[in-house]
Each structure stands twice: as structure tokens, then as C-alpha cells.
Amino acid sequence: MPIHDDTLAYNQQQSPEDRRICDALARAISRHLKGAENKVWHRHPVWFLDGNPIVGYSKLKDCIRLLFWSGQSFDEPGLAPEGSFKAAEARFTKADQISAKDLKRWLAKSIEIQWDYKNIVKRKGKLVRLR
After folding, report:
1. Distance of alpha carbon 101 from alpha carbon 91, whole angstroms
2. Nearest Cα to Cα of residue 11 among 54, 51, 44
3. Cα(23)–Cα(32) distance, rounded to whole angstroms?
4. In what order do the strands lie in the sheet with 52-59?
5. How far apart are the first and last CA of the chain?
6. Residue 104 lies in a domain
7. How many domains does the chain have?
8. What is the CATH classification number for the domain harbouring 62?
9. How confident is the model at residue 128 (pLDDT cuts 50, 70, 90)?
10. Domain range for residue 16?
11. What region does 47 belong to: left with phi over 0, alpha with psi -120 to 50, or beta?
């Protein structure tokens, strides 16, 4: 699927270096998550599979954060736990810090390993593993 216009607009709002990071991430995510729905959700770009959030990125004060909702289950170096659920993140300050090989592997795992964030409210905060 093509990168959503809202995601492209989000990227355009960033500083030149942050825009390079965002553009590189958006291209790689769209290339490796075939069929994923992309939209700006809670003010930042996110990709969904069957309505379940998989990966997204956002501008923090001093970096771009790449977030995998189920990333703690990937058991991957380069991803740090984030929050109290199963999310994990990588942070970038320069586009050349993005390892295409690592990103491709993380994205493959994001398809294979998913927790059901889509229904977390219905389940009153309880996460169930989908894959």
C-alpha cells in the first residue's frame, strides 16, 4: 500500500534530518508490511494489520522514536522496552543510524508476533497474544 498522505504531511513538518529519518522509516515499513493500513493515529504515523497497531514512529524532543507495539516479544537487540505493556522502541537522531537489516528483521517479527491491542479496552487492559 502507498504511504498515506497524512503520513507524508507529518514527515514534511519535521526538521530536515528528522524528515530523512521519517521518510526512510515510512518507505521501509510500507515495503515490508504489505497490505498494512497506514494512517496518522494519535498524531503520529502508525501501520495496522487487521486493525491491530503494529509499528509507528513519532517525534520526541531529541529524536525520532520507532515503536513496535509487540516489540518486547521479539527478543531483539536494538529494541528497548517502552511502557507497561509489550511495546519496544528504537530511537534515532540521524538517518544513517537506521540499520536496514535490523529494521527488515524487526518488521518480519512484527507480522509473526502480535499482541491484541485492538481489543485491549474491551478486555479491560488485558493483552492476549494473537500470534
Report:
1. 16
2. 44
3. 14
4. 37-41, 44-49, 52-59, 64-68, 88-92, 80-81
5. 23
6. yes
7. 1
8. 3.90.1150.200
9. low
10. 5-112
11. beta
Instruction: Give me the amino acid identity at 71.
Output: G
- Give Cβ neighbours of residue 121 (< 8 Å, ≥ 6 apart): none
Per DSSP, 28 falls in state: H
Q: Which of residues 78 and 122 earns the better pLDDT score?
A: 78
Using one digit for the tens of pLDDT, what is the confidence trace for 87-116? 999 999 999 999 999 999 999 999 999 877
CB atoms closer than 10 angstroms to residue 3: 16
Alpha carbon distance 56, 19 (integer Å): 15
Task: Examine the pLDDT at 47 and tell me if it is beyond 90.
Answer: yes
C-alpha cell at position 127: 493483552
